[in-house]
UniProtKB/TrEMBL annotation:
Protein name as annotated: Metallophosphoesterase
Alphabetized CDD domains for the sequence: MPP_superfamily
Pfam family, one: Metallophos
InterPro entries reported in the protein's UniProt record: Calcineurin-like_PHP, Metallo-depent_PP-like
Domain Calcineurin-like phosphoesterase: 1-210
Any one GO molecular function term: hydrolase activity
The organism of origin for this protein: Candidatus Scatousia excrementigallinarum
Length: 230
């Protein structure tokens, strides 16, 4: 089993990378995972749901995702909560699984902490309940659950996967200029807390629509698809 990580897919707008990736590695099976760092977007509208998900179902690997800010949280949260590899999930399809906020998963000997959500910088141009949902922002209850789950692992995990990032990540090029443009939001402060208390090998996130290794521990992803640990 192999595990890879990539950036936002936005329903069907940025899924071409997944098909190209699958073509490059023909040995991939449903026992392999590609984790999307938020803005999955496949659970967006009831009337098109099955067609939207078909794109991901037709891939040869299993898709895991943390939520971003561009998700239909009403529809996403309508799925039953179940436990999978030690953490809470929404199983959208057997091969499409939402990794919920504040969870620690154990996959192939790796511990992976997940914390989705972020602020939509374009929400002024969206309609609440149709193209924007207030649940995009992590709650204090989700933060408390995350702290409790991390404590069970003595605040030490192998990998962190989020949609946005902590404040320090915004200080590194190439993200620095993008960070100045977008500014700081509550989730940046919240994620900085995890950076302070958690020991980890590598942190992956999306949201900023760029690819780059910021330092020896932080990677921002969009079109890139990298093996977990690189």
């Amino acid at each position: 089993m192999a595990i890879y990580v990539t950036g936002d897919t936005h329903r069907n707008l940025d899924t071409l990378k997944l098909g190209l990736f699958a073509d490059k590695i023909p040995q991939l099976t449903k026992d392999d995972y590609v984790i999307i760092c938020g803005d999955f977007g496949g659970v967006w509208a009831e009337r098109t749901l099955e067609d939207d998900l078909k794109i991901f179902e037709n891939l040869p690997f299993t898709v895991l995702f943390v939520d971003g800010n561009h998700e239909n949280f009403w529809l996403l949260n309508s799925y039953p909560v179940t436990e999978w590899h030690g953490g809470k999930v929404h199983i959208i399809k057997p091969d499409i699984i939402h990794l919920m906020r504040g969870q620690v998963f154990e996959l192939e000997g790796n511990t992976i902490f997940t914390f989705g959500g972020a602020t939509s910088v374009d929400k002024a141009f969206r309609v609440e309940g149709e193209s924007w949902w207030a649940k995009e922002m992590p709650s204090h209850e989700e933060l408390d659950e995350a702290i409790a789950n991390l404590k069970r692992y003595n605040n030490k995990v192998d990998y962190i996967i989020t949609h946005s990032c902590g404040e320090r990540a915004l200080m590194y090029p190439p993200l620095r200029d993008r960070g100045r443009k977008f500014g700081l939001y509550p989730e940046n402060h919240m994620l900085s807390y995890f950076e302070d208390i958690v020991k980890y090998k590598r942190w992956y996130f999306g949201h900023y629509h760029m690819d780059g290794r910021l330092n020896e521990k932080m990677t921002v992803l969009y079109n890139g698809i990298v093996p977990l640990g690189e």
